[in-house]
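A brief tutorial aside. Many learners find it easier to grasp structure tokens once they have seen a single protein encoded end to end. The record that follows does exactly this for OTU domain-containing protein 6B. Read the sequence first, then the structure, and try to relate runs of similar tokens to stretches of the chain.
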Amino acid sequence: METTQGGERSASPEELLGEAVEEEEEKQKQESLEEMLARHRDEVQKLQNKEISLKKEAAKGSKAEQKAKKKQVEDEISRLTAQLKSKHSQELASLGYQTADDVVKAISGVTISGKNEPTKPSKGVRRREKRAQQEAAREQRIQEEQSQIVSDRMAENEKLEKKLEPLGLTINEIKPDGHCLYRAVEDQLSLHSHDAAGYGYVELRRMVARYMKDNAQDFLPFFLAENKMELDSHCTDVERFEKYCEEVESTAAWGGQLEVGALTHCLKKHIIIYSGSFPDVEMGKEYKCESGSSVENPSILLSYHRHAYGLGEHYNSVVPTGMR
């Protein structure tokens, strides 16, 4: 042991080496946690993709066969979801993270057993803490909602199936990637060959954004009602709306009622949205074919799922039974 001139004890080389090793181990542990959380998200996404694939397979065959297969798929997804949730919890616990707060501290570089430091955290630390809180909040939502979402989803799907079956309709599953509204509309247009050309989901987004900008007076009041002004925002209402339209065009922002309204006018189509959680919605009634035949301008049929996936709503395409 060495002492300074003031009599204070200074760390020995062995102690300094030990501290360096501990810091390196903590760094590796943090990196392992971040990698684990990324893998967890990837595994959840893969399970969602598997569910879509299984549901598409279950939609084949007679009505009786489809009903039996769908029940098997729901049971299988419920079992796999529970297994995945348990696996993720155990893996986080193996690193010593029992709660979301533990995960926040680990990602932001704060030891779980550490005491409050008297010094003010730097901007870098605060940024890491904010990102860590967002990451942990997302992880916690996934863990909590996976258990609840299965039962809610099954109830919602059952109600929707009872509504669609007498109409000779069924669900065609659409990928849950933020573009689901536009992909579902794209799928509907592809049912009619003369509508298919040039209307992929990217082009549909572009059309919607352009229409909303050109007709801002029709959309701005509804936009403001749904999007409250941020306290630190220095943008005008018009600037906020234009920025929103840019996000509609160039990002995977989820589409809602505003975008559906724009789609009806862009495509001059009557749109029906079926739901197992809410009353059905019709938009663009002025484009509805009243001649008794829908061949000339068929309606677009979509389904809205409040509980399809844990972190947001979802749209699917509704097609005649046996078509897909």
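Self-check: The CA atoms of residues 231 and 237 lie 13 Å apart. If you spotted this yourself, you are ready for the next section.
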